[in-house]
Amino acid sequence: MGPKHNSAEPSVPRARWLWVALVTLLGCIHLAGLGNAFVWDDLLLVVENDVVQGQNPTDAFLTAPSGRPLGTGALYRPLQTLSFMSDLRVFGLSAAGFRLTNVVMHCLLVFLVAVLVRRWSDNDVVGLLTAAIFAIHPSGVEVVDYIGSRGDVMAALFGVGSLVCLQSPRFGLRYVAAPALVVAAFLSKENGIMVAGFAALGALFLPEKSNRRGVFVLLAAVVGFFVLRALIEVSSQARTLSVIGEASWPTRLATIPLCLSEYLGILLFPHDLHMERHFVFDGASLKWLIGIAVPLIVGGLALRRVLTRFESLMFAWFFVGLVPFLHIVAPLSATVAERWLYLPSIGFWAAVCSLGVRSIGAWGRNARYLGVALVVVWMGYLGFATVDRIGDWRTSTSLFEHDVQFAANSFLVHNNLGVLAMERGDYTQAQARFEQSIQTHPGQLYGLAHSNLGEVLEILGQENEAARHYYQAIKLSREALAYEKLARAFLRRNEIDGARSLIDEALRWHPRNETLLRMSEQISRQP
């Protein structure tokens, strides 16, 4: 009996890694989207981005992802930009190639999630089930299948990789790779910094599994990076364009329970998914009360030790991971967006899976079979929902026409539908969409829609009204197209100085815009 036991022992880790590999493959469900086109901001960030097209790695660290100079109203995500440059060099302008990179990174992240959760929970089933749900949940479509959201995938991948390295007995992984990866997460997307918080939570809830010295090194790396970043002006006074952005700080705080309730609904009942949700608190409701009750209940269960320390840790991961998206410090571009759930959802599913496995383990055999069957059916539903949502992202038209059904108050979606109508030559429909976009935005402050409406009105021969919207677009958001159109109007009237002044101002905000550069050269040749 002894020899048989010893000979079988090595097969346990081999079986474990086999299951981890199989769960990782679930992430390949997103390969269903390889045939999808560039959509939404993919065009701005890749196809029309002069920095990406220029293939100069230094430019990635000197500009925002959209190619604008630092401090002009855009974000700072140089590693995302570098990854786009790399894809362009390998795949050319193939949306399938760019999307394949996203899918590969998502599958690597699924693998790391399985490893990390298994180590923290000491339970293979919890680790594998968490990774499996995370791999195929439809809320991930807006991250994995939207090329413009690559920063979310990279931040999560580097961040979870950092936490895995902290668990390693190797000095280099603990004290070199882990801090470097958390900085890389932050250079991919701002919420990557939350990984340092997750590491600190791990040291608090699971001290026996934590490398406290490594956590301090990681936190020191974050502080040092912030000091270095402060030497570069990457912030901006640009106004956030959203319904929540127009709300007062007390109203934003009162909206937090609604945000939590909405995110929980997306995770548990992922139907009617759409890009962005605009709302603010306007009075107590059942959804608002749920958003208050859930964290209080979870906190109470943790304090009464009904939850294990691991479950308390992972629920804390979920709530803390959402903090950057609850508009506490500054409002964001939407009240709720599915892509913001990507990293926090790991904590939610780990806690829920641990609770579920413990509960099913206490049932009788038949009840356990029923529980497992229900989990399998629900996972099947998630897979079908994911493939269906991937289908919405086939083209810009399919995406916006689907999402406007559930986001009638989204000025962005109406504007984008107007652009599509203009490309078809349906100027009447385009005008109606742009006007609806402007009316939908609080205070009519959406500069891009004003610029687009001006272009349509100019085509329709309403030049004075078009100029009014161009000036509004420049005032609100310094739109490049508005500068260009107004400068051309000056040139038609032979007002060279006015055109020169306008183009000089435009190039301060859009120094790489080829059209503006050509106009500047043309004007410089004027007597």
Summarize, please:
With 527 residues, the protein is mainly alpha-helical.
Query: What value does the average pLDDT take?
Result: 86
Number of helices in the DSSP assignment: 26
| N- to C-terminal distance | 100 Å
- Major sheet details: 2 strands, antiparallel
Kindly estimate the percentage of residues that lie in beta strands according to DSSP: under 5%
Strand element count: 2
Coarse morphology: globular
Spatial arrangement of strands, main beta sheet: 1-2
What is the radius of gyration computed over CA atoms, rounded to a whole number of angstroms?
25 Å
> What proportion of the residues is helical, as a percent range?
55-70%
Order of helices and strands: HHHHHHHHHHHHHHEHHEHHHHHHHHHH
Helix/strand-derived class? mainly alpha
What ranges have pLDDT less than 50 throughout 5 or more consecutive residues?
1-12, 233-237
Describe this structure in words.
The chain is mainly α. 69% of the residues lie in helices and 1% in strands. The protein has 26 helices and 2 strands. The protein has helices at residues 2-8, 11-26, 42-47, 50-54, 57-62, 78-91, 95-121, 124-136, 141-144, 150-166, 171-188, 194-205, 212-230, 249-268, 286-303, 309-322, 344-361, 365-392, 396-403, 411-423, 427-440, 447-459, 463-477, 480-492, 496-509, 514-524; strands at 276-277, 336-337. A two-stranded antiparallel ribbon has the order 1-2. The longest helix is centred in the last third of the chain and has 28 residues, at 365-392. Residues 1-12 and 233-237 have low confidence and may be disordered.
